[in-house]
Amino acid sequence: MTSNNTNFLLGLTTGIALCSAAFTVYAATVINNVVKDNNNFQTITATAAISSTAINDSTPSPETLERLSSMFAINSDKLNQIVRHFVSEMKKGLNSDKSGLLMIPSHVVNLPNGKEHGSFLALDLGGTNFRVCEVLLDGHSGARVRQSKHTVTDEQKALPGDQLFDFFAQCVTNFLIEGLASPITNPLAEIAKRHWRLGFTFSFATNQVAIAEGYLILWNKGFSNSGVIGANVVQLLEAALKRAGLASITVTALVNDTTGTLVSHAYVQPSTRVGVILGTGTNCAYVEKIENITKYKNVDPNVKEMLVNTEWGAFDDEQVIVPRNKYDVNVDRSMNGMGKYTFEKLISGMYLGEIVRFVLVDLVKTGEIFSAGASPELKMPHSFETAFMSRIERDHTLDLSDTRTVLENMLKISRTTLADRRLVKSLCELVGKRSARLSAAGIAAVVTKMNKLDGCTVGIDGSLFELYPHYSNRMRDALREILGLSAEYIVLEQARDGSGQGAALIAALAEK
Ligand code: GLC
């Protein structure tokens, strides 16, 4: 994929060596503080706090590390409990709409066989970007893609819905004009000569009632455009295209990024049965037997299987099984949609950096990190990007110099010790590892529910899986803890551009 990635594109380790003199100066400052405070009541609190700070300038306090670890670690037993609960929530969701898991029938009933061909338009609204693609399926499991990519700003995420869709239509117009062979006096008339089929990847919880009809259930990932919840998003898109003079485009498929990922990975790897997104948001789709989707009526007797969009981001919104700490609660409270998509808020790229930031601000208050205090930058919501975590986890320099660049140059913390930087790195590890383990628990549950422990491929797209250091290894470790030997038969593979190519393929399959 996809548009979800760019937020977390990660820099390579750069940085400069720390000068040892700086350590000496810093140590002296800490000692001074302790002595100065030693005469009044505040000293007692300060001493208590300082007693749990770094034991020296290079080693973080073991108590602090232990406390954080107990807040973020999820052991094998807990993972197994989560998996059991997950499977039972999946079953409930397939029977009725009264479960945390929405289990949305996607109306995609075929997987590609590689022979699909033709030219399709695909639109992709993920979390961070909007893309327009022209996808040429060659009929031999191959595709060529021409695309334009546009950032969706925070302002656009709050526009009235019609204006957001007008922006999409404008991007499509520009894209099609750019694609014309030579400048033409009336480009719209030229474009209108051709009938375009379009797959729309709309990566939000949508009640899909037909392959090209779906009603938005709720916004997440920072979107709040009015007039879209409850509306048929295909109709909104077609109306905007019409307003832009593009009535020759028909939206023939509405697609979630997870179903797009599953289908596009199956195009190249036929054993694929599960599609997962680990990016700005997180979610999973899989192949379910139609007889198990008991809430789905009007079944065509020829249909044996259907892709189901789990919307696993909303797993355990009742908060009965997944452990959550005060920082998770803070992040949930500070975002739109409090109490909703709480599983996603522990896992995906939009939230991980913010969890780390809340912890750091707290550690500054208790005197356990950054003796110079928190910078205004660190206090600013979302200033600690998930990309910083990636960069810090990738920092293997002796003095964690790249971590220092992030903290001192980008977040403007005036002084950090090696102990501070090690503490930040351990914290990133804890938060990153928990995310990987929880997503592995989701996959273990889906594969268990499908009865596919004897083997299947999971196509995974998104920046966390692709770019976050150790993420896939941590997932594999957790899968082994949960599934034992069977984990070896579950192949986790990087999928690419499910949202573009997948939408085109689903549009092609819809015509079969
Ligand atoms: C959010 C959306 C879901 C999407 C996921 C990944 O969880 O609700 O539909 O698949 O993000 O983009």
TrEMBL record:
<feature type="domain" description="Hexokinase C-terminal">
    <location>
        <begin position="273"/>
        <end position="509"/>
    </location>
</feature>
<dbReference type="GO" id="GO:0005524">
    <property type="term" value="F:ATP binding"/>
</dbReference>
<dbReference type="Pfam" id="PF03727">
    <property type="entry name" value="Hexokinase_2"/>
</dbReference>
<dbReference type="GO" id="GO:0005536">
    <property type="term" value="F:D-glucose binding"/>
</dbReference>
<dbReference type="GO" id="GO:0005829">
    <property type="term" value="C:cytosol"/>
</dbReference>
<keyword id="KW-0418">Kinase</keyword>
<protein>
    <recommendedName>
        <fullName>Phosphotransferase</fullName>
        <ecNumber>2.7.1.-</ecNumber>
    </recommendedName>
</protein>
<dbReference type="Pfam" id="PF00349">
    <property type="entry name" value="Hexokinase_1"/>
</dbReference>
<dbReference type="GO" id="GO:0006006">
    <property type="term" value="P:glucose metabolic process"/>
</dbReference>
<dbReference type="GO" id="GO:0001678">
    <property type="term" value="P:intracellular glucose homeostasis"/>
</dbReference>
<dbReference type="GO" id="GO:0008865">
    <property type="term" value="F:fructokinase activity"/>
</dbReference>
<feature type="domain" description="Hexokinase N-terminal">
    <location>
        <begin position="65"/>
        <end position="267"/>
    </location>
</feature>
<dbReference type="GO" id="GO:0006096">
    <property type="term" value="P:glycolytic process"/>
</dbReference>
<comment type="pathway">
    <text>Carbohydrate degradation; glycolysis; D-glyceraldehyde 3-phosphate and glycerone phosphate from D-glucose: step 1/4.</text>
</comment>
<keyword id="KW-0324">Glycolysis</keyword>
<dbReference type="GO" id="GO:0005739">
    <property type="term" value="C:mitochondrion"/>
</dbReference>
<dbReference type="GO" id="GO:0004340">
    <property type="term" value="F:glucokinase activity"/>
</dbReference>
<comment type="similarity">
    <text>Belongs to the hexokinase family.</text>
</comment>
<comment type="pathway">
    <text>Carbohydrate metabolism; hexose metabolism.</text>
</comment>
<keyword id="KW-0067">ATP-binding</keyword>
<dbReference type="InterPro" id="IPR001312">
    <property type="entry name" value="Hexokinase"/>
</dbReference>
<dbReference type="InterPro" id="IPR022673">
    <property type="entry name" value="Hexokinase_C"/>
</dbReference>
<dbReference type="InterPro" id="IPR022672">
    <property type="entry name" value="Hexokinase_N"/>
</dbReference>
<keyword id="KW-0547">Nucleotide-binding</keyword>
<keyword id="KW-0808">Transferase</keyword>
<dbReference type="InterPro" id="IPR043129">
    <property type="entry name" value="ATPase_NBD"/>
</dbReference>
